Amino acid sequence: DSGVTQTPKHLITATGQRVTLRCSPRSGDLSVYWYQQSLDQGLQFLIQYYNGEERAKGNILERFSAQQFPDLHSELNLSSLELGDSALYFCASSVEGNEQFFGPGTRLTVL
Amino acid sequence: AQKITQTQPGMFVQEKEAVTLDCTYDTSDQSYGLFWYKQPSSGEMIFLIYQGSYDEQNATEGRYSLNFQKARKSANLVISASQLGDSAMYFCAMRRPGNQFYFGTGTSLTVIP
Q1: d(CA A66, CA A15)
Q2: Phi and psi dihedrals of A84, rounded to 5?
Q3: B103, A100: Cβ pair inside 8 Å?
Q4: Number of alpha helices (DSSP H) and beta strands (DSSP E) in chain A
Q5: Gap between the Cα atoms of A37 and B103, Å rounded
Q6: What residue spans of B1-113 are helical by DSSP H?
Q7: How far apart, in whole angstroms, are the C-alpha atoms of residue A111 and residue B15?
Q8: Residues B50-91: tens digit of each pLDDT
Q9: Which pLDDT value is given to residue B79?
Q10: Number of Cβ within a 10 Å radius of residue B70
């Protein structure tokens, strides 16, 4: 158990809908990272937050947004969902070092 | 352009033997970091090892070592004394300045008893 929690574990929704994925980092970790893992695109870095502020942005679509709250949990919002958004979404946290601890992931299925 | 290349889609190794998983990277940055992650069939991602571009010594973590050849832009993972529990997907990744992360397509390792 990495200490990072993600909810929900599975999510099934329809095209055009909006969903929110939630991540609670390990106690004391200020950085949260979001990744997408799909069969088509492989593993892709989406975005990083550090202590509530956006720190780095990767291949995140404009339909996607994220935020980190004062209690350091983070949410990834996916809107206008398309079939191609079906993927495993990981959250990871770190103190601000090189080792990232990954959550179990949220498997999103868009029908 | 692909920044991380893992050319071995699948590898087999006998239990207790050593295995090398290949990774090459492409960057013109002077400062970068290289990572290896393990993803068992259960799906979680597990950090294994890290090598900084300025580190002169190859990184080691228990049975894992990273064979860093900067001039060749390679960062191969060596697993010694393979165990059945090592069967998993292995991903090589790079962190570039600005905290941009890039992953390879992974290598599936199967340890044979």
Answers
A1: 20
A2: -70, -5
A3: no
A4: 0, 11
A5: 10
A6: none
A7: 42
A8: 999 999 899 999 999 999 999 999 999 999 999 999 999 999
A9: 98
A10: 12
Q: Are the Cβ atoms of B99 and A105 closer than 8 angstroms?
A: no
Q: Is residue A97 over pLDDT 70?
A: no
A95 reaches B (C-beta below 8 A): no
Q: Is any Cβ of chain B less than 8 angstroms from the Cβ of A90? A: yes
d(C-alpha B92, C-alpha B74), whole Å: 10
Residues 6+ apart with CB under 8 A from A76: A20, A21, A23, A34, A46, A47, A64, A65, A66, A89, A91
Alpha carbons B30 and B43: distance in angstroms, whole number:
33
In chain B, what residues touch A106 (CB-CB under 8 Å)?
none
Predicted local distance difference test score (pLDDT) of residue B1: 58
- A102–B98 CB contact, under 8 Å: no
Strands B64-69 and B60-61: antiparallel
Half-sphere exposure of B75 (CA within 13 A, CB side): 31
Phi-psi region of B81 (alpha: psi -120 to 50; beta: other; left: phi over 0): left
Contact between B41 and B47 under an 8 Å Cβ cutoff? The reply is no
Interchain pair A56, B99: CB under 8 A = yes
